[in-house]
Write a structure and sequence with these properties.
132 residues; alpha+beta; Double Stranded RNA Binding Domain; three-stranded antiparallel beta sheet; 3 helices; 3 strands
Length: 132
């Protein structure tokens, strides 16, 4: 689990999009989070993984931009943006284990061939009956 210090990302309050009431044009409740990946204290390996990921929220300069506007309050949107930032960084830090090819066991091969034989016999019984 990677924790990012508050000094490494920038939070800006902006007006939220979408429908709202009379208060919507006066209150800046949405949050823009900007995280400069190359200038951060993350390891070089993790920086490279983040920058080379196919995430549209990362600019060509390596700045991750998140917009949080799910909640009505600015504080809740701040928490949501920071939580999402940590989720993205921790997901990039996780490496999937290697998969190794395996062969089917002798018993599974035998069961498969047996089921094919039974199916073949069922289909042969559906043929025309010849009355000699």
């Amino acid at each position: 689990m990677v924790l990012i210090p508050e000094t490494e990302y920038e939070l800006t309050a902006i007006r939220a999009q979408g429908a709202g009431g009379q208060n919507v044009n006066k209150v800046s409740s949405a949050i823009h989070l900007r995280f400069d990946i190359p200038a951060s204290s993350l390891s070089d390996w993790l920086k490279a993984r983040l920058i080379h990921s196919k995430d549209n929220r990362i600019t060509d300069e390596g700045v991750l931009i998140l917009k949080a506007q799910q909640y009505r309050t600015q504080e809740a949107n701040k928490k949501d943006a920071i939580k999402r930032l940590h989720e993205i960084v921790n997901a990039a830090n996780h490496v999937k284990p290697m998969r190794y090819a395996t062969k089917p066991s002798y018993g599974s091969k035998q069961r498969r061939l047996e089921s094919k034989t039974i199916r073949k016999q069922v289909k042969q019984l559906r043929g025309k009956i010849t009355g000699d």
